[in-house]
Design a protein that fits this description.
This protein has about 325 residues and is an alpha/beta fold. The protein has helices spanning about 5-30, 75-80, 90-95, 110, 115-120, 130-135, 250-260, 290-295; strands spanning about 45-50, 55-60, 60-65, 100, 125, 145, 150-155, 160-165, 200-210, 215-220, 235-240, 260-265, 300-305. The chain contains 8 helices and 13 strands.
Length: about 325
């Protein structure tokens, strides 16, 4: 067999394997899916998945968004290095009004839409220095708060703190993709790969409900710094599962650190596919295996997926 034929055979085998994984992943996501109002949240608290690592949390008329990303840059646009910028029509279609936006890191699939939301709603943006630099490119850096590690911030009934973390290393677990700070100086150069990740955070959110405080922890990238995690006995862990295959023993380490009661699988979808179209899965995400990884740590932890994103209103 020539090298060209072998390469073609390898590619065909890879495509078949990925298709098989996709079938199993889709079945797992559907089996674990719960109703938006039927998975044990305190009365009045609404938690909605926005796609990728994005969430909207609403309680008593206050809404915070975490890593919202709906103006999806396609793979073709990314390869052609076209600017990845917010689409106001998509923002208005898919995202509710927000009082605050929390940014776990500034890769494009976490941060593209943050400036448009901040401008539309007058929302304050909490994150690292890269997040405020991104706001500055849009002329609204005054709406950004550069957070201090572990300091508690409050917006309405929500209290939140940022836990220093790190991004999973791709390329055989050796390098963070687009690491470091955002250095772009003009929107015309802000293509997908110009969104460097900046500071990486896990985010603890405590909702002061009428019954009792309710805690969530959001981890948008599958790596951690164990000795920075101060929070245990978490009610709900919003767990980004993409990239965990490049982090040594990730599932066990993060669950032992947080001891959550329930896990919501997130960041498993293909972030190059526009919302409203049939969704695929992130490269190598293997959702099907994740519940077994959790059970190996603690069989009492419930694992769920949330309904797919829907337009507001």
């Amino acid at each position: 067999m020539t090298s060209a034929m072998k390469h073609l055979a390898d590619m065909i085998g890879y495509a078949r394997t990925r298709k098989t994984h996709g079938i199993h992943d889709r079945a797992t996501v559907e089996d674990l899916r719960v109703r938006s109002d039927g998975w044990g949240l305190p009365p009045g608290l609404d938690v909605r998945w926005l796609g990728v690592a994005g969430f909207a949390l609403t309680y008593q008329g206050t809404t915070i968004l975490i890593d919202p990303y709906v103006s999806r840059s396609t793979l073709g646009q990314s390869l052609k290095r076209k600017p990845a910028l917010p689409d106001s029509d998509l923002v208005n279609t898919w995202l509710p009004r927000a009082d605050a936006v929390l940014v776990g890191h500034t890769h494009f699939d976490h941060a593209v839409d943050t400036p448009a939301i901040a401008r539309r709603d007058g929302a304050t943006v909490y994150g690292g220095t890269a997040a405020r630099h991104l706001l500055g490119l849009h002329g609204i850096d005054h709406q950004g708060v550069v957070v201090e590690p572990h300091k508690t911030y409050a917006v309405g009934p929500f209290e939140f703190a940022f836990t220093p973390s790190q991004h999973s290393k791709l390329l055989l677990g050796k390098k963070v993709p687009n690491g470091g700070e955002i250095t772009c100086e003009h929107l015309s150069g802000l293509h997908a790969n110009a969104y460097n990740c900046g500071d990486v955070w896990g985010i603890r959110i405590t909702v002061q409900t009428n019954a009792a405080p309710f805690t969530l922890f959001h981890q948008g990238s599958a790596d951690l710094i164990e000795d920075q995690i101060k929070d245990t006995d978490i009610d709900v862990f919003l767990c980004g599962v993409a990239g965990r295959q490049f982090t040594d023993d990730y599932t066990r380490r993060i669950l032992r650190a947080l001891t959550p009661h329930k896990i919501v699988i997130t960041h498993h979808d293909d972030f190059f596919v526009p919302l409203g179209q049939p969704q695929g899965f992130a490269f190598g995400v293997d959702v099907d295996r994740f519940p077994y990884e959790v059970a190996d740590v603690d069989r009492d932890i419930e694992v769920v997926t949330l309904p797919e994103p829907t337009p507001v209103g």
